[in-house]
Amino acid sequence: MSWGMSGMCGEIAGPIDEQLAGLRSLGVARANLTSLSFSKEEKPRSINALTDDELVELRQRLNTNGITGYCVTSPVAKYSVDTDPDIVAQQLDRSIQAANILDSRYLRIFSFAPLDNGTAETDRDQIHHAFEALVTTIESQGNGVTPLLENNYRMYASDGPTTRDLLADYAPGRVALAFDAHACVVAGVRAFDEVWPEVEPWVQVLHLKDYVAETKTIVPVGQGDGQLTEIVSAADSSTVEDLALEPHLHNSKYGEGRDPLDLFRESRDAVLNMLDATGRPRPPVGKP
Length: 288
Fold this sequence. Notes:
single chain, alpha/beta, TIM Barrel, eight-stranded parallel β-barrel, 17% strand
């Protein structure tokens, strides 16, 4: 069974038409939507800042290009757990509405960060309570959209024990995990050896970017310390359903001065080569 492939297309360009043209050229038919504009003159805005009418227009452009709005990759909970509740509620409400209008499979969220003077241990209960509010709101207001947690080195879910601790409140499938090996490396933990065994049952998306700890450089997938070859080899294709490209190479020393679409293509090719080397089938080209 092969996985699908999605792309965080806001890394390709600002205007949505250029983002979608880039995905089409790469044979990627699933869009992870972060920020976009509707013209070259307009400054890109976060997906959760779009109006309902703009979201309807976005869905029409996706449909015209044969691309699904696979995941609303929102910034919800990528901040301290004491963030103004009104800000959290507004971001979450608009992200859920985006997921509903776009008929998205997932809504990406984070796990909140401890307080500035706190730790994962001291703020655990407050974070659990706040995260539960996100999950139940998505369940009650979303049209079948699945909350998709992304682990992050600056958030509560930064290593194996904390990520599992948060996910253990939910059956796999009720909340899914987008497993980010790069974030593990930055956090100083071994992605496959230390974190993967803790969280594997919840992983439905492999969030693909890589990092070299010694040089603090983002690199193409498989060229860093993320143990992604081991992860791809071990991942269960009956639970993992998507390979999500978020190369971040355009923000790195590696990709400095290069065209973002070329860097995205290089990352895609690195993933395909890894699949070939590990005997895993390639995603169907251009199929959502």
